[in-house]
Write a structure and sequence with these properties.
Layout: H1 19-24, E1 32-37, E2 43-48, H2 53-59, H3 71-91
């Protein structure tokens, strides 16, 4: 697919990315673009891919206790987190 559309630069150095381009790249408000200027003065605009929390989690090494996780491990972690939260609330943090 090839799309060619003109955009006008404002006095503040801003331009509006045309809707057809935003739709083709599935861009939304808050997405980032990378601008690459070649030695031949050609400008390449590349959307920076957003990653979901699940994709980011997959980049991390697996969590391990060195043994299988038990229900007691989960219960202990939940209790510890609840105690920490209660302490933060009581101390006004």
């Amino acid at each position: 697919m090839s799309i060619t559309i003109d955009a006008t630069l404002t006095s503040k150095g801003q331009f509006t990315l045309p809707a057809e381009i935003r739709q083709a790249l599935n861009l939304r408000s808050g997405d980032q673009l990378r601008f690459e200027l070649t030695d031949d003065l050609e400008l390449k605009v590349v959307p920076k891919r957003r990653r979901s929390i699940r994709e980011l989690r997959e980049l991390l090494p697996p969590l391990t206790l060195g043994r299988p996780l038990t229900q007691a491990d989960i219960d202990d972690s939940v209790t510890e987190a609840m105690n920490e939260q209660e302490e933060r609330v009581r101390s006004g943090r």
